Structures are given as C-alpha cells and as structure tokens.
Automatic annotation (TrEMBL):
InterPro entries: EarP. Keywords: Glycosyltransferase, Transferase. Pfam families: EarP. Protein-arginine rhamnosyltransferase that catalyzes the transfer of a single rhamnose to elongation factor P (EF-P) on 'Lys-32', a modification required for EF-P-dependent rescue of polyproline stalled ribosomes. Transmembrane segments: none annotated. One of its GO terms (molecular function) is protein-arginine rhamnosyltransferase activity. This is Protein-arginine rhamnosyltransferase. It catalyses: dTDP-beta-L-rhamnose + L-arginyl-[protein] = N(omega)-(alpha-L-rhamnosyl)-L-arginyl-[protein] + dTDP + H(+). The keyword Acetylation does not apply. The keyword Cell membrane does not apply. Belongs to the glycosyltransferase 104 family.
Amino acid sequence: MSVSWDIFCSVVDNYGDIGVTWRLARQLVAEHNQEVRLFVDDWVSFTRIHPEAAPEASTQRLLGVEVHHWTSEWPDILRPADVVIEAFGCPLPAVYVEAMACRTVQPLWINLEYLSAEAWVEDCHGLASPQPNGLKKFFFFPGFTAGTGGLLREHGLLERRQTFRMSTVERDAFLVQLGVSVRPGERLFSLFSYEMPSLHDWLDELTKSAEPVLLLIPEGRVLGNVARWAGYDRLMPGDVYHRRQLRIHIIPFRQQDDYDRLLWCCDFNAARGEESFIRAQWAGQPFIWHIYPQDKRAHMLKLDAFLDRYLVGLSPAAGQATRVLWHAWNGEGSLGQAWREWMPYVGELTAHAESWCARQAEHNDLASALVHFHVERLSYSA
Ligand code: TRH
C-alpha cells in the first residue's frame, strides 16, 4: 500500500536539516514505495547537496520525490498527506495544520527530533503530545539503541561500501573525478568540520606522521583555519598544499552519495553535525566528531553520551585516549598532544569502528522504523 508523506524542512543553518530530510525522503520512495513530498525553505542548501535540482524551480520531481520550495506563500490547495513529518520541530504553516485537523482520517503527525545518544531519548521516543486542534503529535527520536527510531541507513549500504572498497578501479575513478591523485603509500584522511581554532596543532602533527598523509577537505567553514596555517589568504577547490609528510587537497562540495564515497576512500574521517557523523560511522573506519556547538556546553554532554556507548569494548587505554582526543577536537584540551597519545591505538580503533558499524546495522533503520510506526498507529485506530 502506498502511503503519502509530507516532510517539512526548515534549514536552520548548514546542511544537516536538509541532509537528513532529503535522505529520508529518497529512502521512503526507493525502498518503501511511498509517495513523498519534501518542502524545503532553503533552495540554495538543497541544490548544494543535490546539484541536479534546477536552481529556480519551485516544484520538481527528483529521484521520485516531489520537492517543493517552501515559501511564506503557502498554496492552500495542497491536501495534507497521510503522514506529516516536521523535521526538528519546524513550525508547519497554520493553514496546513487546520487542513490536517479537517481530514476524515487524521494524519499521523510526527516531530522528527535531532540525534542524541543520551539515555532519556528512549523514554521520550514515540510519546504523543495532544494538540489544541484535537490532533496528536508524536515525538520520534533517532538513536543508537533498539528503544529508539534508529539511524538512517539505506538497504544494502554496507555491501555497496564493501564492493567499492574492494575495487581499486572504482575508487581510483572516483578520486580522479574529484581531481585527486594519490601518491604511493599515502594514507587518506577527510576533514569536514566547523571553524576550529586549534586545527593548526593537528595539522602540525600530521606533517610529522610516520606515513605520508593526504588530507581531503571539502570546501566549507574550516577552510579559513587551514588557509591561515598554510599562509594563504584563502583556499579553493582544486588547491593543493604540501608540507613534509602532509599534503592537503581542497575538493568541491559534492552530492550526498559522493560524500559517502569520499568517506569510504579514507582511513580516517572527521565529520560533524548529525548527518555526516552518521555516515562516518557507516564508513566503518576510525572517525572523529565535531559536534554542533550549543549554549552552556550542552553539546559536551551529548558528546560524552555518545562516547559512553561507542567506547564500550575498547581497551581502557584506547577508550581514554579517544575520549581525550574527541574533547580536544571540540576545543577542550591540547589537540596536538591528544593526537600523539591516540595514534598508538589506531589499529584497535580500526577494528572497533567496523564492529560498532555492524552492531548498529543490527537495529532497524530510521525510514523502516517510521513506516512501521505508521502501520502500528493505523492498526490502533482501526
Ligand atoms: O552541515 P551540518 O553542520 O548540519 C547541521 C546543521 O547545522 C543543523 O542546523 C544542526 O542542527 C545539525 O548540523 C546538528 O552537518 P551535517 O549534519 O553533517 O550535515 C552535512 C550534510 O552535508 C550531510 O548530509 C552530508 C552532506 N554533504 C554533502 O552532501 N556533500 C559534501 O561534500 C559534504 C562535505 C557533506
């Protein structure tokens, strides 16, 4: 049975909001045969992660998803779908909410929440909040345990990753497309982060690495820090910089599936926010997280909540070195020293990253969990 879904995305900043909703929309169509409309208020961000979108269009069908540019002029002819998702609590248009309440069969209204590894998430996942118009809004939390909605993971993702990794032809062709040439013996790292005042400490350490490192950096907010370290005014895609054991190559921002391939090419990935953080986990290689900063250091609680889960199974020394490194990466502690002290454990972390990935893949994925949630609600109301 094909069910209709409306997903609303208001871009707060950066690419995480649209990154999550676009991936979810695609997956609902491709794997669950659902009819999906995605309403996004920031077309520029959308075209960055999906450059095939026409720059000026207000509505387009892309990979089976009907994508609408959501502006303040809401076309009130649109009938609400069977399932309505407000991503990250974005307020829906008032006329749309009125129309939801008027439907004969009430739509399932879901607030898709931000990702957190904190324990309280399991208690709140799936809770209903009665609304003044008689509808109920359900809170749906992604997460890392069976008691949450799980993580976005496409069917066959890990198998595709494995095939890609085994094929030097595919990998080399992809890197050529990026304009990157790898020298013999180079380890590949990727860096996607926010501004990082202490980045120079890490770059200094990389110049002294035992093996040569090629650091691939998609254009974005961290480039200012890299440019200052390298002694340039600015850096652009295509720029290459070399100092001792470290080569840096700035690459263009690519569509989402290419970002996955980039992660799969690398021995170490630095990710950020929410979406790239999850994708780095599916890459099954050691990674680090630049968490989205919040007031009163609230993000550090979230960071530690994730680490409390992630570090289970590592030796105490590797776990401690990883925690110290992740804190330093997020501005707390000396990054150079933390990197030096973490490096001896890289082998252990490599094996651990793959087993974490396999354990996470045992949980239901987020899109399937949402479809299942809808089916369950239908059977309650039948
Ligand atoms: O961009 P982010 O920092 O996004 C967010 C937002 O700031 C949001 O408001 C905040 O709440 C959230 O973080 C926690 O990081 P994120 O979540 O990793 O999203 C980046 C997206 O960009 C992700 O879908 C991957 C994609 N991407 C590409 O498609 N191509 C690229 O080349 C790169 C580097 C990323």
